[in-house]
Amino acid sequence: MCTVVVSIDPSAEIPLILVGVRDEFIDRPWVPPGEYWPGLIGGRDLQAGGTWLAVDPAARRIGALLNGHGVLAPERTRRSRGDLPLRAAAGERIPETDLVHYDPFHLLFADLGGARLWHWDGIALKRDDLPRGTHMIVNSGWERGEENERVAFFRPLFAKAHRPSELDGDWKDWRETATGAGLPSEDPRTMIVRHELPDGRTFGSLSVTLLALAPGGIHYEFTGDPRDPEAFNRVPVE
User: Fold this and answer.
1) Which secondary structure element, helix H or strand E, spans residue 84, and what is its range?
2) What integer best gives the mean pLDDT of the chain?
């Protein structure tokens, strides 16, 4: 997953909204969200067995992963980062003593109390608590300025998107913005990417997740057609 958007408003009926766009090689096998792990829902990476985003519906808790930059783990002891969102969604602590086995990452933990972000660069682990507002995390981390073109374009759009007052409300603004707001894939600001690489492989956006947490439940939508705002499907959470 290469872009995560988090909107936090503790005073709203829906205190937390999250959008996640997963970018990966298009030939890497995966399946849409389901309860592949007891009590946890998420899409499953069939190559490594983990996930990029996991949800515990009962606890109203989310774990989301982005690849980071830094020092890679030794190849002989490297572990898949796909177990980290599962640990976060399950409420487990980050295994600091084992982090040397993971390549760099950004790991988001979100619940009704807000959102926290861990950054591992292969050397040191850092934590940020996200304040009230609209935030974007990309592979370089939590981007708070205007230097990143994607963030500079999309953060204001998400910030002004209509915030429903109930989970079954109108999510049109969020769907349209989360699927790229009409920008072509070659636009440097785009959030929905597609790159044809010299070795013949294609790297691109594979899916979009839209999640909302409220005291009364969870709204969970998913699409494997990341440019179509009409293609979202509700994910059962009961």
Assistant:
1) helix 84-89
2) 96
* Three-class DSSP category at 18: strand
Residue written as token pair 């783990």:
73
Residue indicated by tokens 């946890």? 40
d(CA 69, CA 159): 27
Q: How many CB atoms lie within 10 A of CB 210?
A: 23
pLDDT computed for residue 61 by the predictor:
98
Strands 194-196 and 30-37: unpaired
Average pLDDT value for residue range 212-226: 98
| Residue 93 pLDDT level (bands cut at 50, 70, 90) | confident
Edge to edge, what strands does the sheet with 105-111 contain?
30-37, 40-45, 53-56, 61-67, 105-111, 114-120, 125-130
Q: Is the pLDDT of residue 15 over 60?
A: yes
Cα–Cα distance measured from residue 129 to residue 30, given in angstroms and rounded to the nearest whole number: 31
Q: How far apart are CA 63 and CA 50, in angstroms?
A: 12
Identify residue 96 by its one-letter amino acid code.
E
